[in-house]
Design brief:
Length: 999
């Protein structure tokens, strides 16, 4: 059985085993390869052919020898253009030009060598194949042409992911990207082969809790999205991998400088008639790279800076004029509405060095710094009308000042061992510091039909996240097999963390009328015990260790059939809480099932997950044997990583705990003393949070099948079907703040006429007048939120895509995806509403009652992106994104089952009845979404001095409103009225860019 002391032994054992093979690395994400077969003119395989692959930009060469079957493979190649030369005694030397390797690609370049008696040498210039006939993975790559020319609003490279199939985004706030029907928490961002996922929030290092660029777009070489069929090298993602490769220096000096400008005169009013007259944004920066020593050492540096001043407009969803709250010093609640200044300054600095230490070893190192300094951060996205909470959002004093500083450094050593063995070792370190300060000190008031004001309940926040990552892979080519072994070790650490929810109080209201009457439904307040105060509530040195091991074989069964199969192991070891859960001594039983049937002590540790084995297989077949068709299929088990925010690491239940009062013990506006003297017993039950002792990370069976055909030169059509089956999805872990899964509750005694559970009667009200308010299996505990893995989901999607490679100045990709996403797990933190299960009872029927269309479901989605050089120096590029409305919830404010929960604790809303029909969790749709962005660029050539680009960009060309609602309670008079919008109003931008040398 696993104990904490066994982890170092297990890790060292695994490391020694891999080191015994050769030095170690697991995920070769930032490279490509060239593969193929050498034959004579009769079609017979030629073993022993020396194949030299040369990177034209840097002079890097890779020499391999064909196997007895004539097969060759040159792995670990930097992206870019290549020349291939094949030599064998008795045969003419063959040279292939025009081969391009993109990130993660494996172009098949077959070589036919004529006899030397016919000719001494032959040079062939040919395009890289459009269809990859040797890969089963479903991927989309945006090459340098797309990265350089497509209009991206904000210069955030992650927006390129939205131009791929099976990817969806929740607008505003973090804008988490979901792939293949999976939660955005389980997507992975890899930059130069390093994991840039923030371990605490499951977002991206440098942009936690807010969307902003973190790496200069000038430094992005290529961007790839892997959505299905990725092999055993890839881990810790159930849905997709965003794979970014940064630029390297070359033998040629290259550089750029740019300036983009926009202001209020280039913007339209938003859909609610607001327009900031104070808006001003400048984005500027540049890059330079070149040789340190020709053919040996290179450097590249880049910078991106943003200076943005704006005004954010907010208003309540109802008319609040004349509502006075003297207890908070507010004479008129309407005075909180209107314009508030907002500032968002960003900067990122990037540097990279590549050195060919010898003919067999290349050392690469890069460092990236980013900083986001934002005042009046809305926490909800741009120009919020109403935002967060139980459906609506905050007015200006509900905002915060936000600062995020992050560093990331990566070093890798690529080694060629003989002609058939290859290795890459990589070290990665990143750190991120994110202090967040509230703009108000009064308690927050959440009004379900109106909006929020006061200090946001989770503020202030401090914390530093550190990550150390060691990865290595070794591959060996023999015969028709390419075998890889690898290991990947991650250690993430949380230090100086203070995440105190409800520290200033949080009042719950259903309606504005309750505010006027001063009669809240309840109040939540954080209390500090055992001698702790808010100043000492800091968690230090909480860690998580992750280990990944894999073995993978890519078998070239015959020239037109490739089979990949492998096995991956992943383990996650979580540190123990720094302090015991207050109010629980470990011997007090807590209900996990019906009372009296399964009573267990509250776990005082955080469960580790060490049983994740993922077999994977992929097949790619060229039935026409002409390199223009591929039939591909894949299946495998994939595991996600659970963010630390859902684990009670010190912000929920250790040094302090929240208490919920229904009704409040004091008049509206007043709070109890938050610090209980050491040694004194709390006179009321606390809410606690803990992790189930059988907790597991989500497990996904991911399958796909598809076909792609180059129908005319450089143009292909593809059809792909994806099905995923998710088990062990997260339910709970909100620590009574959101998505709570309360275990300290009684089971229902029956159902009403609509099938909703009733008779729980364990809530916060004296329902029968006997003076007993809390009816709980454990009366000393209020809400007992458990992080469980009891959810499930199903996803299926069909995609039709067309792709034209860049020839004759034109390239494009377009996709249409139909999909269906169902589940019963909790919604994400990035959703428009934190929506937990309707009935906290852990019994099977209660969970299955919530299964159906979930928050990720978008039925139809169409994407187009393309670039065309139209003559006279002009280039036109654009993107089109159309999709049907996102699934939207509906629920009732009534406490149908008598559990005392009306959405004010844990957001466990009961199912609503509308027009005599019982509604599922997500019965409605937001309006359809339409967006078209366009760039027109004129290039002036200055000869050897370089090029000047003059740019004019239009975002949301047709000013589509893209309205959405956050009012989902069916009883409210403004149910489903528009409260916000996705995207941005029409905006124009002008820019100038200098590049040398020119194109």
């Amino acid at each position: 059985m696993y104990t904490k002391s066994t982890f170092p032994k297990l890790f060292l054992t695994a490391l020694i085993l891999v080191l015994a093979v050769t030095p170690v690395f697991a995920q070769v994400l930032d490279r490509g390869e060239i593969t193929g077969t050498a034959r004579d003119e009769t079609g017979a395989a030629l073993p022993g052919v020396t194949v030299t692959v040369t990177h034209l930009d840097s002079g890097l060469t890779r020499v391999v020898v064909t196997s007895e079957t004539g097969h060759y493979r040159a792995p670990l190649l930097p992206v870019g253009p290549y020349r291939i030369q094949a030599e064998l005694a008795g045969f003419a030397t063959l040279t292939r030009e025009g081969v391009v390797v993109t990130v993660g690609s494996a172009p098949v370049i077959d070589l036919t060598l004529p006899l030397a008696s016919v000719t001494e040498a032959i040079t062939v210039t040919a395009e890289t194949p459009v269809v990859s006939t040797s890969q089963a993975v479903t991927s989309t790559t945006l090459n340098q042409e797309a990265v350089a020319t497509l209009p991206i609003n904000g210069r955030d490279f992650r927006d390129f992911a939205t131009l791929t199939p099976n990817a969806t985004v929740i607008p505003g706030l973090r804008s988490a990207i979901r792939f293949g029907g999976q939660s955005g928490d389980y997507s992975m961002l890899s930059v130069d082969g390093a994991d840039l996922t923030n371990p605490f929030f499951a977002e991206y290092t440098g942009s936690s809790e807010v969307k902003n660029f973190t790496i200069s777009q000038e430094a992005i070489q290529e961007f790839q999205v892997l959505t299905n069929g990725f092999n055993a090298e890839f881990g810790r993602s159930t849905g997709g991998v965003m794979n970014v490769v940064t630029k390297s220096g070359t033998n040629e000096w290259r550089g750029s400088g740019f300036l983009f400008l926009r202001d209020s005169g280039l913007q339209a009013e938003d859909p609610f008639g607001f327009k900031s007259e104070d808006f001003s944004q400048q984005q500027f920066g540049g890059s330079i790279g070149g040789p340190i020593a020709r053919d040996k050492a290179f450097f590249f540096v880049a910078a991106d800076i943003q200076d943005l001043d704006d005004t954010v407009f907010t208003r309540f969803a109802r008319d609040v004029s004349g509502v006075a709250l003297p207890q908070f010093g507010i004479s008129d609640l309407a005075s909180l509405e209107g314009a508030s200044p907002e500032k968002s300054d960003l900067k990122t600095l990037f540097g990279r060095v590549d050195i060919d230490v010898s003919e067999s070893h290349r050392l690469s190192a890069r460092v990236n710094f980013s900083e986001n300094n934002t005042n009046s951060f809305t926490g909800r996205g741009q120009n919020v009308v109403t935002g967060a909470g139980s459906g609506l959002g905050g007015i200006a004093n509900n905002f915060e000042n936000f600062r995020d500083t992050a560093w990331s450094a990566v070093a890798s050593l690529t080694s060629v061992i003989g002609t058939n063995a290859f290795n890459e070792f990589k070290f990665h370190y990143s750190t991120e510091d994110r202090p967040r300060q509230a703009l108000s000190t009064i308690p927050e008031s959440n009004i379900n039909d109106t909006g929020n004001f006061g200090q946001r309940f989770f503020l202030p926040i401090t914390g530093i996240n550190n990550r150390w990552q060691l990865t290595d892979s070794f591959s060996y080519l023999f015969g028709s097999h390419d075998v890889k072994f690898g290991a990947d070790w991650n250690r993430v650490e949380l230090t100086d963390n203070s995440f105190i929810g409800f520290s200033s109080g949080f009042y719950f209201f259903d309606t504005l009328e309750q505010v006027i009457a001063g009669t809240p439904n309840g109040v939540a307040q954080r209390f500090f015990l055992n001698g702790f105060t808010p100043d000492t509530h800091v968690a230090n040195d909480y860690w998580t260790n992750e280990l990944g091991l894999f073995v993978q074989d890519k078998w070239q069964v015959n020239p037109n059939l490739t089979v990949s199969y492998g096995l991956r192991y992943e383990g996650q070891w979580n540190g123990d809480p720094l302090f015991p859960i207050v109010g629980v001594d470990g011997a007090v039983p807590l209900s996990r099932q019906a009372p009296g049937t399964d009573l267990r002590p509250v776990p005082q540790t955080i469960a580790s997950d060490t049983n994740n084995w993922g077999p994977r297989v992929g097949v790619s077949w060229d039935p026409t044997q002409d390199g223009r068709t591929v039939v591909r299929g894949s299946a495998g088990l994939y595991y996600g990583r659970t963010a630390q925010i859902f684990m009670p690491t010190g912000g929920a239940g250790f040094q302090s705990a929240p208490a919920f009062f229904f009704p409040p013990p004091l008049p509206y506006g007043q709070l109890l003393p938050s610090v209980i003297p050491e040694g004194e017993q709390a006179p009321f039950p606390f809410s606690i949070g803990f992790v189930a002792d059988d907790f597991n990370n989500p497990r996904v069976l991911n399958t796909s099948i598809g076909i792609e055909r180059e129908v005319i030169p450089n143009f292909s059509l593809a059809f792909d079907f994806v099905y995923t089956r998710t088990e062990s999805a997260r339910i709970g872990g909100g620590s009574a703040a959101f998505n709570s899964f309360d275990q300290n509750t009684l089971d229902a005694t029956g159902v009403d006429e609509f099938g909703r559970p009733i008779g729980v009667d364990s809530g916060f009200t004296d329902s029968d007048g006997d003076g007993v308010i809390l009816r709980r299996p454990d009366p000393n505990i209020a809400t007992a939120d458990i992080l469980s893995s009891l959810g499930r989901a199903r996803y299926k999607a069909f995609t039709v895509s067309a792709k034209k490679a860049f020839t004759e100045g034109i390239q494009f990709q377009t996709f249409y995806t139909w999909s269906r996403d169902e589940g019963n797990a909790d919604t994400e933190r990035d959703s428009e509403v934190f929506l937990g299960i309707s009935n906290p009872s852990p019994t099977g029927p209660a969970l299955e009652a919530d299964f159906g269309i979930d928050e990720r479901d978008i039925t139809h989605r169409f994407i187009f992106q393309g670039t065309a050089e139209v003559g006279a120096g002009f280039t036109v590029s654009g993107t089109v994104q159309l999709h049907s409305g996102r699934a939207a919830p509906a629920y009732t404010l009534q406490d149908v089952n008598g559990d005392g929960i009306t959405g004010t604790v844990g957001n466990n809303f009961d199912h609503a009845v509308l027009n005599g029909e019982l509604l599922p969790r997500f019965p409605f749709r937001q309006p359809n979404f339409y967006n078209v962005d366009l760039r027109v660029m004129w290039t002036g050539n200055m000869g050897s001095a370089g090029d000047i680009d003059l740019l004019f960009e239009l975002f949301n060309v047709f000013n589509s409103e893209n309205l959405e609602t956050r009012i989902f309670q069916v009883e409210l008079p403004n149910f489903f009225e528009p409260t916000t919008y996705a995207g941005t109003p029409f905006t124009a931008q002008i820019g100038i860019k200098y590049r040398f040398p020119g194109r």
